Each structure stands twice: as C-alpha cells, then as structure tokens.
Amino acid sequence: MNVRTRLPLLLATATALSLAACRTDDPLGPVVVPPGDADIATDILANRTLYAETTYTIKGFVHVGNGATLTIEPGTRILGDFATLGSSLFILRGARISAVGTADAPIVFTSSQPAGSRAPGDWGGLIIIGNGIINRVVTGGLEIEGTGTVTGSTPGTNYRVTYDGGTTNTDNSGELRYVRVEYAGYGPSLNNELNSFTFGAVGSGTRLSYLQAMAGLDDSFEFFGGAADANHLVSYEAGDDHFDMSEGYVGRLQYLIALQTTQLTARTGAGTPSSDPQGIENDGCSGTGCASGFDTAPFTVPLVANFTLIGTGETATSGSSGGVGMMLRRGTGGYYVNGILGRWPRGGTSLRDAETFARAGSTGTPDPVTADLLLRNIVHVETPSMFQTGGSSVQNSLDVTANALTLSASLATAVFTAFPATFTNATATAALDWTPAAGAAGASGGLATFTGKMATKATGASPTGHAFAGTTFMGAAAPGGIKWWQGWTVYARN
Questions:
Q1: What is the CA radius of gyration of the chain?
Q2: How many whole angstroms separate alpha carbon 129 and alpha carbon 119?
Q3: In Å, what is the CA distance from 478 to each residue of 160, 314, 339, 349, 413?
Q4: What does 184-217 look like in DSSP terms, one character per residue?
Q5: What is the dihedral of CA 155, 158, 160, 163, to 10 degrees?
Q6: Which of 275, 277, 273, 284 is nearest to 258 (CA)?
Q7: Rounded to whole angstroms, how far apart are CA atoms 474 and 308?
Q8: Dihedral (CA of 252, 446, 244, 77) sign
Q9: 56 DSSP 8-state letter
Q10: Is residue 492 within 8 Å of residue 425, measured between CB atoms?
Q11: Its pTM surpasses 0.90
C-alpha cells in the first residue's frame, strides 16, 4: 500500500514539506506523500491512485475489477516483477484506467531488472478488456490470449479472462496518454501470448494517444475487435508484429511509427519471439467461433493513416528473419493510406487470400464508394517489391498507378531527416528524426482528401479531440511539423 502520512497543520513546517510532495487534493487538507516503494500483488476492486513519488512493482496477475478506476499520475513508474513470470496488469470489462502522463513526465511500465539486464518477456504487459463487439462466438467464452493458466479466480493469479459477447462499440475503458510499456510479453504456450498493449473488444469511448511499446516479446499493439481509436503510436523493436488488428476491429489509427532493426532474444521461460516480425498483421476472423470462416462479419475494417513502418533492412535472401510491411489476410479489410514502408525484404504488402482480395472488390482498382479494402498513397523504400509474390498462399496485386503506390530508389537514410545507417543498443532516440528530408519520398504526394467509405470512416473527432483526416504528405511526420515522438520515447534493447 502507498502510505500517506497526514501532518498536523501546525507542524507542517517548510522543512517537513521539503522532504516530500505536498498534496491539496484531499478534502481534509494537505497530504504529504513520501517517496518509496510498494508492491501490488492482488486484484484492485475499488478506486485507487498510484502516485509519482512511489515506484510500484506488479507481482503476479493484477486485475482491476468491474466498477473500479485505477488512476496513475504523470511520471509514475510501474515495474513488472521479473521473479513472478508473466506479471501483468489487467483492466477488466466495466473497469477503467486513467493513466494520463505528459511528454515531460510519461507513465512508464517496465521490467524490474536493471538496465542492461532487461529482456523481452521480463513481465506480461498491459491488457484492457472492453464491452465492444468481436466477430467470434465461442461456447463458454473466448479467453484473451495468455490467460487461463490456473483454474478458479484467486486474486493475483492468471485466471481465465474472457472478452467476447460485448455489444457496445462505444464503450469507455478510460484513457492512456503518454504511456510507455517496455520489455513486456508472456507466452504460456505457442500462439498464446500477452502483448505490450492488448486491447480486447475496447470501445471508441476509450482515449488512446501518445503510446510507446518497446522490446516486447510478442506484438506491440494488438486490437481484438472493438472500435477504439488511437493516435500517435510508437513501436520500437517488436518480438512479433508492431500493429495487429483482428476479429472485427473497426477503429481508426493515425500517426504510427514502427522500427525493427534486429530479431529480439527473450528471457528464458517467457516464450519465443517471431522469426518474421511484420509492420502490420491484420486478420478478419480465424480459429474457432468464426461462423462463416474468413467471411465472418463484422469484418475487420480499420482506418490506418500516416504510418511509417521500417523493417530489418536485411536482404530478401537472408531467410525468414525479415517479413513484410503489411500482412493482410483471412478476410481482413481496412483503409491504409499515406504510408511509408521501408526495409521489408519479402515485400511491402502481402494480400494472402481470396477473401481478403474480395474486400477490395476482387479488382486491382477498388471503388472507394463500395470497397472495404483500400491501399492508397504509399511509398516503398529499400523494399524489393511492393507486393509479396510466390509462396503457397493466394497472391493478388492492386494496380499501383490507380492506387498511387510507388517504389522509391532512395535509401531510408536519405528519406528521413535523421536515420542511422546502423543501429546498436546504444542508439538514442535523438539519432532518429522521422520528418521527411526536403524533397524526399513521402514529403509530398499524400492523399489530402478522403472520399467514399474512407471519408465516412474518418468523419468525427475521437474522444481525445484528434480529427482523422488526409494529409499532403506520407508517413507519420509532417515536413516542418512537430516532432511529436521526441521527449517521451526511448530506444533500447535491454
């Protein structure tokens, strides 16, 4: 517990107040909150605030229960306990989180290990469950990945957490702003992993902005159904995919950065990173509970605008450790516009099956008025081809001219204002400036005006006040614009 010591007003001298922060948010008068450490090892079933003066350690699987709100102050640091494999924080359906940091004082979830000894999978991650809609129906409920390793519902343990059956895509699970999640991810079994940020059926009333995932064991940001909007997201060094959307996700994302420079190595016992990380990996419906297979409605149809997704830079003949910029499969749709895809050795985009191509109208020139899948105004850098070819899956290419898809001869080092030729663990975020260089690919050529279904999708600001709209540039940063990722993001591998 966070100990709060009330000092009688007559004894609250200037000397005493200099030893700790004085708060005035208590109705009974000032409250002095001393710095210190605190463990959280059981479920949170009533409103609770975590204060910046205290470093908290999550020991085990902590669930914020229905009706409770967890408030986290700017600058608060929360550690995932390395000694308790998979330690995680869950915000369950009906609960809320209010973690609102600032660029100068982000809220940080990280490993309890010291710098230099940290690794993907040191702890589990941040999981939010909402009351939104998904397209899978499973008798007995659908478990969120990575849960259910114990029977019963003992507080603090990894009991079964379900996320299906929701009916309200406008549901509100709270707010995350200027939040960083580092060295997370936990996989009790293959293809059953927690991610850095997991959003299960999270509704559009939830406010998500300025979030970073770094060096997680599995995906950085995964959306299972729901309709949550998010803006200004950063993923550095993912164990698997940087952005993953499936199961009827229909939200909107704008200003996304992903950088993959190496294949990560996880802590022992937490799981295994993927050998082919992708920038985006989107699915329609797959697995049990898909009544019509890949064609199960509601379809996965997100708006993903202004993305900069940079891969390993390895050659196309270097084996399976590369991947593609966007893996679109299993009947997914979506509107992907104003993007930069770079250094993906197997191709910029993979359209994996006929059901996915059907979302585009099964034509190389999709009609914006009717299509549920559009790729528009995307430039490819240091990538051998705009579309993955070969393999056992169905491959379908879109008309590159009609959809303003281009293959640039430029190197990534020439496209951005600052981009190192090589990356090491000592690389600093100051070495990265994602603003397009003057006259470079992406500095112009964006789709400034959305039409058809994409325009309808973009209509209306999100709860954060962000307005989704077209831009004259491609990628996550405007020429001459605000360097919105600076000051609160970090770059490190351990």
A1: 22
A2: 26
A3: 44, 27, 12, 23, 17
A4: --EEEETTEEE-SEEEES--TTSEEEEEEEEEES
A5: 100
A6: 277
A7: 8
A8: negative
A9: E
A10: yes
A11: yes
- What are residue 471's phi and psi, to 5 degrees? -140, 160
Angstrom distance (rounded) from CA 318 to CA 324: 13
Tell me the pLDDT tens digit for each residue of 206-265: 999 999 999 999 999 999 999 999 999 999 999 999 999 999 999 999 999 999 998 888
Distance CA 487, CA 494 (A): 20
Q: Average pLDDT of the chain? A: 90
* Separation CA 479–CA 442 (nearest Å): 9
Structure tokens at 160: 């079964």
Q: Compute the distance between CA of residue 186 and CA of residue 122 in angstroms, rounded to an integer.
A: 8
- Phi, then psi, of 431 in degrees rounded to 5: -80, -5
Tell me how many degrees the CA angle 206-109-106 measures, rounded to the nearest 5: 70
Strands (E), 169-323: 174-182, 186-189, 192-194, 197-200, 207-216, 221-224, 230-238, 243-246, 252-259, 280-283, 303-310
Q: Is the peptide bond before 298 cis (omega within 30 degrees of 0)?
A: yes
